[in-house]
Fold this protein.
Amino acid sequence: MPHGLRALIEPAWIACVPLALLAGCGLDDFTERSAPYADAPPARVERGRQLLAQYQCGSCHAIPEVPIARADVGPPLTAFGRRSYIAGHLPNGPDLLTRWIVSPSSLVPDTTMPSMGVSAEDARDMAAYLLSLE
């Protein structure tokens, strides 16, 4: 191969190596979207709304259609389904949101959001409600 052509091809090939390595790193876990919850059964969405009241999430957050959720200590959760990130750090989607609700500090160690003892099943329904908010 002529030296000039090699000088053009080699940098492009080297630039592709990190992308190829990342492709096998399970990044799908971090690029999920809320689409699976867009079709969540209405009963799950409604149960999630009720659970947000039961776990007293409104002590810190304003949450649409949760009557006792009018606080402003944490961010309002209005239109949460359209947000790109959870807590400004994690890509927003059903699996990460469920994990966040169960154990926020395991995902963002310096978060001020407390762990409220939410089960994974309850967290899935709470996530379904939050992701339905557009």
In short: Residues 3-23 form the longest helix (21 residues). Residues 11-36 have pLDDT under 50 and may be disordered. The chain has two domains: 1-26, 32-132. The CA atoms of residues 64 and 78 lie 6 Å apart.
